[in-house]
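Dear colleagues,

As part of the handover before I leave the project, I'm documenting each prediction I ran so the next person doesn't have to rerun anything. This entry is a single chain, and its sequence is reproduced below.
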Amino acid sequence: MAFSELPQHGGNLRRFQILLAILSLSLNILFSTQNFVENFSSAIPSHRCYIHLLDNTTPEINLTMNLKAETFLRISTPMDANKKQEQCHWFHQTQWQLLNPSDLAINNTELETEPCLDSWTYDQSIFTSTVVTQV
């Protein structure tokens, strides 16, 4: 018995077979969208360590109101090999000597760093909320 003879042996297209085909097609369309949702909800936005002195918005605690954020990031997070701010490390102690323009030749790799301890601050310009930022 060939495959083309099987539908005739079991009966030609009946109402149940048509309903089953429509149901499976509609379920495939619905569940396949879940794969596309994962692409956006699991995105990892650019981030950096949460720095208490910089990210704390309480005026009486924030002592760095007169420093720009970029300046404070330069003295609190090391640079990576591409001369960008590290995303998962920060200096063990704030490196105030990096504010002096004559000390720009200081090698950041020699300064003591540690992994982020508390949490991260995420760039929300592209994604306001993802699975990664909620965890």
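The longest strand covers residues 47-49. Strands lie at 47-49, 89-91, 113-115, 120-122.

All the best with the project,
I.
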